[in-house]
Design brief:
The longest helix is centred in the N-terminal third of the chain and has 30 residues. The chain contains 20 helices and twelve strands. The N and C termini lie far apart (46 Å). The protein has a domain of 149 residues. The protein has 567 residues and is mostly helical. The protein is globular and about 65 Å long. Helix 9 packs across helix 16, helix 10 runs antiparallel to helix 16 and helix 16 runs antiparallel to helix 18. The N terminus is likely disordered. 50% of the residues are buried.
Length: 567
């Protein structure tokens, strides 16, 4: 059974970790304050849950995976005629003024909470709560390193979407500081990640208990350092015409490609993370629900697929998941919480008004660019493992009825798609049966975790940084494709394109490589609610791949923040 490590603490979060001024102005019903809290391991664990809680955004448009996918060249806006915001994100026109406000606001909530833990844990002594000094030290180092990582995570989320942002690095720091430069922002991110790596214990994942799954580790921080290095150096070289191979640090130093590659090698050699045997087993469509007495997806059975689950090495489904490194953990929703804690990507990206088994209905956003399907080698199992073809008996979509929405191409993403089984209670969401969910509302049963980092990315980043084929060919070998044998950036780009389709990485790859300027030079024939139409978008290079700062934040800053170019 999945561990719902965040939802358990929701009641406490209301008082303990509401964030920023709201916290300071609220009467503490539990007689806790910044002065007497953070004294016990339980205090720290509850406060850390508050940090992770900020990964969730109430507004679906501010979900990292939704925005980044719609911005990419793999997906079209889709949806119905009234889904104008999805189309504006997709075609680079001005969105509503606060489209990404929750993304900004929740990131700073997480930063504030991480700042508090960093300040309170630095000099804390937890020895009286553990049997040995070694245990107390390990707990403290994990908590401190985790807080540094999460601060870096939120600043990186802000930096890659918005560019340079205000750096608020302490609880008492003023809020009305100007935006830092792009370089200053990424220097702080890099320094926090190095601190996290050097502080957190280097335990292999097989020694980390199930209840800790979903938390950051030293290995996650090393993987993110590779990602930050590639984005910063690529962006500066290709978008700012300021060629660099160094990642700056906040103290004035920098990290070279060799140093960053060394961190990735440490992760590769010592983490116990490894690739899943079959790429397709990472995704829940590969789950064969034998307990229901019927095969859910004949294609999955014919291909010998078996879902590895989403509880790490100790998953009670399959042989365990050693590849997934960092995720946003989801459970199920109810209308008291809204859709806050269930993953809305499968709902929004699901086929519009088509309730089939095992692929259920959704709102039809993010239809797939059919040129992507046509250009993908049929011999690559990742093709049918990533894209859902409609009207296919093999895929269980032979009864698909089209013309339900806009930008229809006949293809949807398969990794994050509504799933349902026909079981004892009738046709219900897959996770309704897997996790014993009691709510039958199709909008609330998507408990699929959103993968933020997996081991395949560490291997491909290592190849890109070192310009060697080893990691790239290991990923190809998993797909039973002929190894390249030699490295080229063109080959590396192809592998990332196919390995990480619809995982929210493509947009940022296009931006950092400078390929975004020409990525949208095409026109597609589509169906818009039953009518033939042409689809095209016009990317605006003057934006330099950045999104607009929420107008509410600009107004609140009284002119301190300047809007990004092009918006």
């Amino acid at each position: 059974m999945k561990k719902l490590i965040y939802i358990i603490s929701v009641t406490l979060l209301v008082v303990i970790a509401t964030g920023c001024e709201d916290f300071l102005d609220t009467r503490n019903l539990y007689e806790k304050s910044l002065d007497n809290y953070y004294e016990t391991p339980q205090d720290i664990n509850e406060a850390m849950a508050g940090v992770y809680h900020a990964m969730y955004t109430p507004d679906v448009l501010s979900m990292e995976g939704l925005a980044a996918n719609l911005l990419s060249d793999m997906m079209l806006g889709g949806g119905g005629p009234d889904d104008k915001t999805a189309k504006r994100i997709d075609d680079f026109t001005d969105p509503e003024e606060d489209t990404y406000h929750d993304l900004w606001k929740q990131s700073y909530n997480g930063i504030y909470r991480a700042n508090t833990i960093i300040e309170k844990v630095q000099d804390a002594d937890f020895s009286e709560h553990f049997y040995t000094e070694e245990e107390a030290t390990e707990f403290k180092n994990q908590a401190l390193g985790e807080a540094y990582f999460m601060r870096a995570f939120f600043y990186f989320r802000l930096g890659k979407f918005f560019g340079g942002v205000p750096l608020i690095l302490s609880v008492d720091a003023p809020r009305d500081v100007p935006r830092a430069s792009f370089t200053e922002t990424f220097a702080q991110i890099a320094s926090d990640l190095v601190m996290a790596i050097e502080t957190m214990p280097g335990k292999p994942i097989t020694e980390i208990p199930l209840e800790r799954y979903g938390h950051a580790t030293k290995w996650v921080a090393e993987g993110y350092l590779g990602r930050v290095y590639l984005f910063y150096t690529g962006y500066m070289t290709n978008m700012e015409n300021s060629s660099t191979s160094e990642l700056p640090l906040a103290d004035g130093g920098s990290l070279s490609a060799t140093q960053v590659a060394g961190y990735l090698e440490d992760c590769i050699d010592n983490s116990d993370h490894e690739l899943a045997e079959d790429f397709r087993n990472l995704w829940p469509y590969s789950y064969i629900n034998e307990s229901a007495g019927a095969v859910v997806l004949p294609w999955a059975e014919a291909e010998g697929l078996a879902w590895v689950g989403q509880d790490g090495p100790f998953s009670n489904i399959g042989t365990g998941n050693f590849e997934t490194m960092f995720v946003t953990r989801y459970a199920f929703g109810n209308w008291q919480w809204g859709q806050y804690y269930n993953n809305r990507l499968p709902l929004y990206f699901g086929m519009r008004d088509n309730s089939l088994v095992p692929f259920g209905q959704g709102w039809g956003w993010g239809t797939v660019n059919y040129q992507f399907w046509q250009g993908w080698d049929d011999n690559d199992p990742r093709k049918k493992g990533s894209i859902l073809e409609t009207g296919s008996a093999e895929m269980g979509t032979q009864d698909y009825a089209g013309d339900k929405g806009d930008h229809e191409t006949g293809y949807f993403n398969k990794k994050y798609h509504s799933l349902q089984h026909d079981g004892p209670d009738g046709v219900c969401g897959m996770f309704y049966y897997v996790y014993g969910i009691t709510n039958k509302d199709m909008q609330l049963w998507h408990a699929q975790d959103y993968i933020l980092l997996r081991f395949a990315d560490v291997l491909l980043m290592h190849s890109e940084i070192t310009q060697t084929p080893d990691g790239m060919d290991e990923v190809r070998d998993r797909a039973e494709l002929i190894p390249h044998g030699t490295y080229s950036l063109a080959n590396l780009k192809e592998e990332r394109k196919y390995e990480f389709a619809f995982e929210g990485l493509r947009w940022f790859d296009l931006v950092r490589w400078g390929d975004v300027n020409t990525a949208f030079d095409y026109t597609l024939d589509v169906r818009n609610s039953g009518m033939d139409a042409e689809y095209s978008v016009t990317y605006r290079p003057e934006t330099k791949g950045l999104l607009p700062i929420p107008e509410t934040e600009i107004r609140l800053s009284n002119g301190v923040y300047q809007q990004n170019p092009g918006w």
